[in-house]
Amino acid sequence: MQIFKIKNRKNLEIVGEISIPGKSIGLVFVLHGLGGFRQQNHIQTIAKTFFENNYTVVNFDATNSIGESEGKYEDTTMRNHYEDLVDVVNWSKTQDWYKKPFVLAGHSLGGFAVAKYAEEYPQEVKAIFPYALVVSGKLSLEASKKFKINEITDWEKTGWTTRQSASKPGTELRLPWSHMKERLKHDLQPNASKLTMPVLFVVGEKDEFCPPEHQKILYDLVPGPKEFYVVFGAPHTFKEIEYLNKLKEILDSWIKKLVNLPG
């Protein structure tokens, strides 16, 4: 494994890792979600599953999160998260291990970012795995009002929402209401017809942030080869070993099907 450090378009440092197998057959970029980092168990499960299938894996911490990259959590936006992915991909194009077309995998906000990249640059992308992705800001707000109406009301009223990180106990995460307002500018649905490459959808049955019915909306719009799995009993972020094992099983099976595709 190699650690890399680069500057994004806003001159903030992005820190990530590159894992190169003995005989690499492809390249994948892995991106965590809001308030996440590259060493979370579900992100590591995704990265390791690709590596075990002989993919070069680029797994990085987005800026304005709680990993090693620079920036303040309160400044994170859907746009910034996506732009970090673009900046890492563009830097990768200058490296000798770069391969195209590549695979993209992301969770939640990272899922949105990889799907948006595939819509913007479909000729570069072999397949995508947008796990429990944010489909649009509108649907995100709709889910918040359905499952967490008191929290969303307080957030809008006070201008801030605060929570404790489950992945890093003792880490307080505060977001301004402007974050949600910025979310409303984003929607994957209008350009979903560009997702002609294989797409794997996986979501927890009890996901209250990006529920299965919202994933199904995008799934129905995707024209290319696609698979859809709802993991019984699982929440938005898979932490328990049974859910992580199921994630690995589904992903491993899908990756093996990609071997016969061009590139």
What does this structure look like?
36% of the residues lie in helices and 23% in strands. The chain is an alpha/beta fold. It has one domain: Alpha/Beta hydrolase fold, catalytic domain (Rossmann fold, 3-Layer(aba) Sandwich). Helix 1 (41-52) runs parallel beside helix 8 (241-258) and helix 4 crosses helix 5 (149-158). The model has no long low-confidence stretch (mean pLDDT 96).
Here the CATH topology equals: Rossmann fold
Number of helices: 8
| CATH homology-level superfamily | Alpha/Beta hydrolase fold, catalytic domain
> What is the correct CATH architecture?
3-Layer(aba) Sandwich
Helix-strand string: EEEHEHEHEHHEEHEHEH
Beta-strand portion reads 15-25%
Q: Which value, in Å, is the CA radius of gyration? A: 17 Å
CATH C-level class is Alpha Beta
- Shape field: globular
Q: Which spans of ≥5 residues are poorly predicted at pLDDT below 50? A: none
Keywords:
263 residues, alpha/beta, Rossmann fold, two-stranded antiparallel ribbon, 23% strand, globular
Q: What's a quick, concise take on this entry?
A:
This protein is α/β, with parallel strands linked by helices.
Map the helices and strands.
Blueprint: E1 2-7, E2 13-19, E3 26-31, H1 41-52, E4 55-61, H2 78-92, E5 102-107, H3 109-120, E6 125-131, H4 137-147, H5 149-158, E7 160-164, E8 172-176, H6 177-183, E9 199-204, H7 212-221, E10 226-231, H8 241-258
Parallel strand pairs: 3-4, 3-5, 5-6, 9-10
Antiparallel strand pairs: 1-2, 2-4, 7-8
